[in-house]
Amino acid sequence: MDEGLRRAALAAKGFMPEDEGDALYAAARTVPAGGLILEVGTYCGKSTIYLAAAAREAGAQVVTVDHHRGSDENQAGWEHHDPTVVDPRTGRMDTLPFLRRNLEEAGVEDVVTLVIGRTEQVGGWWTTPVSLLFIDGGHAEYQAQADYEAWAHHVAPGGTLLIHDVFSDPADGGQAPYHIFLRALEDGFKERSRTGSLRVLDRVA
């Protein structure tokens, strides 16, 4: 991975450990030329930069979908709340300015397209097949299930599905990503690898 992009990814706000970021990059690096990488849950762009680095090398493009108002677990009073991403004008979270700055400073705007909206909105009209899908949106059960429902069927045969924050033991973390991981296995995806909480699955052609 380009060292400048690695530094940019590590410096960006987010919740992905370095080894998981490297695994995300490695999986995305195998996307075919002209392929599409779709990320659900952008936050401030840490994982987006890993994906963009891979896309640039592979000759692919990244689309990242987020409403930028924060997931349930990012709101005030919750463990993963960051008051620095709250817009003082509205009192609401707004991670979009942080994302824009991070992508600009990383120099990856040429391979990343931002879609601002909720899964329930964007997934309803989306029709383009996806070479790699990375689900890392809200971790409430309803939101994780909505993300999977909206996007998993867009993964092309032979394509890749990655799910972040998968913990089989409730003591380690929330269970919603684990539940959609199990759902993916039931739907015929095959697990390829795991790094920390990141699971990589293949859609059998």
Automatic annotation (TrEMBL):
One of its GO terms (cellular component) is plasma membrane. Keywords: Methyltransferase, Transferase. It comes from the Bacteria. GO terms for molecular function: methyltransferase activity. SUPFAM superfamilies: S-adenosyl-L-methionine-dependent methyltransferases. GO terms for biological process: DIM/DIP cell wall layer assembly; methylation. InterPro entries: SAM-dependent_MTases_sf (IPR029063). Signal peptide: none annotated. The keyword Transferase applies. This is Class I SAM-dependent methyltransferase.
